[in-house]
């Protein structure tokens, strides 16, 4: 099972996650309490191991904005968290993760419209499009055919429930942000505990 730690803002937390087994790290380039500057993201990414996938998180971006971030920071994946259309996704010349806010089984029907290898299933939308720390009913995934798409499970995951989440879903990757924070900041101990529990599950 692979792990993505999202919403990183500083080098210490990013390197700590990398050392403890994270497979991918996410950096938010959209309005959010975890929004990061291009300069800071570029600095952090330059120090990360090559094998770790670097993901840029966007909400309803322009193509120019995506191009700017990719060229400046060297991210590997573009994660789209807004109301981007399938047509827009087809026009992006980079690997894509398309995120969906899930409230009911009906929300899953849209996933096949998008031309991407990975889909990210998040909890219901709050003030921001992602990172709200709210889980959805994982049980609705059991009877849905995702066909060739790999599922990234997000929304409300933490060290206490991630083992159960893995057991109940067929996710390829689990994604955490607020679940490894204390008072709105990445907690190194929680990051390590989350990674340990996933890798041992």
- CATH architecture name: Alpha-Beta Barrel
Task: Find the structural class using helix and strand composition.
Answer: alpha/beta
Report the CATH topology name. TIM Barrel
Q: Quick one: biggest sheet?
A: 8 strands, parallel, barrel
Description of the molecule:
The chain has six helices and ten strands, in the order βαβαβαβαβββαβββα. Helices cover 26% and strands 21% of the residues. The protein has 201 residues and is of the alpha/beta class. It has an eight-stranded parallel barrel with strand order 1-2-3-4-5-6-7-8, surrounded by four helices. A two-stranded antiparallel sheet has the order 9-10. It is globular. The protein has helices at 11-19, 38-46, 63-73, 86-90, 162-168, 188-199, and strands at residues 2-5, 24-28, 53-58, 77-80, 96-101, 118-122, 150-153, 173-176, 181-182, 185-186.
Short description:
This protein is 26% helix and 21% strand. It has 201 residues and is of the alpha/beta class. The chain is globular and about 45 Å long.
Structure keywords:
201 residues; alpha/beta; TIM Barrel; eight-stranded parallel barrel; two-stranded antiparallel sheet; 6 helices; 10 strands; globular
Please give the structural blueprint.
Elements: E1 2-5, H1 11-19, E2 24-28, H2 38-46, E3 53-58, H3 63-73, E4 77-80, H4 86-90, E5 96-101, E6 118-122, E7 150-153, H5 162-168, E8 173-176, E9 181-182, E10 185-186, H6 188-199
Parallel strand pairs: 1-2, 1-8, 2-3, 3-4, 4-5, 5-6, 6-7, 7-8
Antiparallel strand pairs: 9-10
